[in-house]
Amino acid sequence: IKLTEPLGDVTVFDLAAQGADLKMVLREEVAAQYDVGDEIEVAFDPKNLHFFDHAGGQRLSKE
């Protein structure tokens, strides 16, 4: 975990994962278990992913 951004009921984590920079949003009660510098294992269901254009911030279609 490179950086945490508490935003009320959720926290955004900036992660470094195998050379890629990722952002992950967690409910605050889950995020509170972790600190900057912690190594975490991340697994996810691909159908629940959302992708955004880096330059414009627009959501990319799943199709």
Summary, kept brief:
With 63 residues, the protein is mostly beta strands. The protein is 6% helix and 32% strand.
Distance between the termini: 31 Å
Rg value: 13 Å
Q: Give average pLDDT, whole number.
A: 91
Structure summary, number of beta strands: 3
Largest sheet: 3 strands, antiparallel
What structural class is derived from the secondary structure elements? mainly beta
- Secondary-structure element string: EEEH
Low-pLDDT stretches: none
Principal-axis shape equals globular
Strand order of the largest sheet: 1-2-3
Residue share in helices?
Answer: under 10%
Number of domains: 1
Strand percent estimate = 25-35%
- Count of alpha/pi helices: 1
Tell me about this structure.
The chain is mainly beta and 63 residues long. It has one domain. The protein is built from one helix and three strands. A three-stranded antiparallel β-sheet has the order 1-2-3. The chain is globular. The termini are far apart. The relative contact order is 0.20. The mean pLDDT is 91.
Keywords:
63 residues; mainly beta; 3-stranded antiparallel beta sheet; 3 strands; 6% helix
